[in-house]
Amino acid sequence: MEINRDINKYIFRSYDIRGVVPTDINANVAYTIGRAFGSKLHDLGKDKCVVGHDNRISSPNLHQALLQGLIESGLTVYDLGLTTTPMYYFGCIDLKIDAGIMITASHNPKDENGFKFAFSNYQNAKGKEIEDFYNYIKENTFHEGVGSIIKKDVKDNYIKALLDNIKLGKRKVKVVLDPGNGTTAVILDDIFKNLDVTYKIINKESDGTFPNHHPDPSIESNLSELKDVVKETNADVGLAFDGDGDRVGVISNLGNFIPIDYYMIIIIRDIINKVSNKTFLYDVKCSKSLEDEIIKLGGTPYCYRTGNSYTKAKVKELDLAFGGELSGHVYFRDKFLGFDSGIYAAIRLIEILSNTNKTVEELLDGINRYYQTPEMKYKSTDEMKNTVVEEIKKYCEEKKYNINTIDGVRVTFEYGWASVRASNTGPNLTARYEATTEELLEKIKNEFETLITKYNN
User: Given a cut of 90, is residue 274 above it in pLDDT?
Assistant: First the structure.
C-alpha cells in the first residue's frame, strides 16, 4: 500500500466520501484515508475506532486497505467485518467507542463505494469537518505506529436492542421484506424469526452486484416486485431496505407506494401523545401533508436540510422523539437509540399494525393530500450544481418569493411549493414540486425546470 497524494477532491461530499471504484476510490485511497483518520484521532487524543463494511463487491478490498492504514497509524481497530450501517452505529455505542468508519456507498450504483466516518460523539462528519479532513490528508503529516485489530461481533446485542421495547399486539401481521440483495440480507431472517409475524423475504441473497433491482427504496420503480408479491400473498405490508440498511421503503396492503413523509404521519399519530417534546423534524423535500398533520395534532413542525448526518444530529441536538427525511432515513429517540435503522423503522410500523385492525391505507385516513412529483434528478456537474442553485436563489429574491435557504432553495406559494437543491451524493440537482391542483403543479414545475435548464449549462 502507498499513500495517494492526488485524491479527487470531489469525492469529499457534504456528509461522506463517495466515488467510483477504482477511478476515484481504490485500495491506495482507502489506505491513505486510514492513515489520515488514525492520525487525526491521535491528534484528538484517541487511540481506537470501530470499522465495518457493506456487501458491495469492492468493499472487502477497501476494508483490508483501510485497516492497514489505520493500524500503521498506531490505532487499535475494533473490526465488525461485514455489517449494515445501523449495526456499525450500534457497535460504536455498544463498545463505547465514539469514532469509526463505515465503508459503504449506501444506495449509489454498484460501481461506487465510500466512507461514512465519525471523529467524536458518535456523529458522522459533515460539511466543514469533511472539507477540513480533505485538507488534512493533503498536508500528508501522518502519525506512524503499530496498531492492532480486534474482531467483534455485535449481532446478538443489536437484535436485542431492536426488539427490547417492541410490544406486538394480538393481530399477526403478514409482511413481505425486500433487502434488494443488499447488506440487510445477512441479518434480516435472524431478526424476524424472533417476531411473532408471518413473513416472506424476496431478493434475500447477499449480492453486491444488486442483480434484481437498484437498492434505493425511495424510488418507486425499484419496488415493482415487492408490490406484486404483497398483492399476490395478501400481505398487510411490504418493507424494503437500501444497500447498507439505514433506510426503509413502504408498500401498502393494496400494493401502493407509501412515501416516507406519509410513513412519518403514521408514526407521529401513534407517538405524539406518548412523548413530552412534540416537535418533529422533517427535511425540505417532505410534503405539506406532513406539516399540516403535525399542526393538526398539536405538534410543532421543524423543516430542516436534507442529509442524514445533518438531520440525525439535529434531532439529537433538539432532543426530539422522532424525525426523518423523504429518502427513508428516520430517527426514533422515544424508545430507541436515535440512529437510522431501516429494519427498526419497519418493525415500528409492524408494531402499530399489530395493535390495530386498520390497514396501512386506513392509517392515513383524513390527511390533507396534494398533487406532487417524486424527487426529481437533473444531471449536472459537481462544479456547476451549486452555481445553478445560487442563480435560482437570486431569481426568487428578485421575484420577492417566500424562500427558505436552509438547503438549496425551497419556495413557498399560497398554492404549493418547489424545492431545488444540489445533491450531496452525486453530480445532480434534485427538485420536488407540490400544489393544490394539477394545473398549479404543472405551473410550478415548468417555472423551475426552465430555470434549471437555463442555468445548468
Answer: yes
pLDDT, residue 230, reads: 98
3-state secondary structure the chain: CCCCCCCCHHHECCCCEEEECCCCCCHHHHHHHHHHHHHHHHHCCCCEEEEEECCCCCHHHHHHHHHHHHHHECCEEEEEEECCHHHHHHHHHHHCCCCEEEECCCCCCCCEEEEEEECECCECCCCHHHHHHHHHHHHCCCCCECCEEEECCCHHHHHHHHHCCCCCCCCCCEEEEECCCCHHHHCHHHHHCCCCCEEEECCCCCCCCCCCCCCCCCCHHHHHHHHHHHHHCCCCEEEEECCCCCCEEEECCCCCEECHHHHHHHHHHHHHHHCCCCEEEEECCCCHHHHHHHHHCCCEEEEECCCHHHHHHHHHHCCCCEEECCCCCEEECCCCCCCECHHHHHHHHHHHHHCCCCCCCHHHCCCCCCEECCCEEEECCCCCHHHHHHHHHHHHHHCCCEEECCCCEEEEECCEEEEEEECCCCCEEEEEEEECCHHHHHHHHHHHHHHHHHHCC
pLDDT tens, 124-143? 999 999 999 999 999 999 99
Known active-site residue 287:
no
Share of the chain above pLDDT 90, in %: 96
pLDDT on residue 210: 96
pLDDT tens digit sequence for 354-408: 999 999 999 999 999 999 999 999 999 988 999 999 999 999 999 999 999 999 9
Exactly one of 58, 106, 252, 327 is catalytic; which is it? 106
Averaged pLDDT for residues 205-224: 96
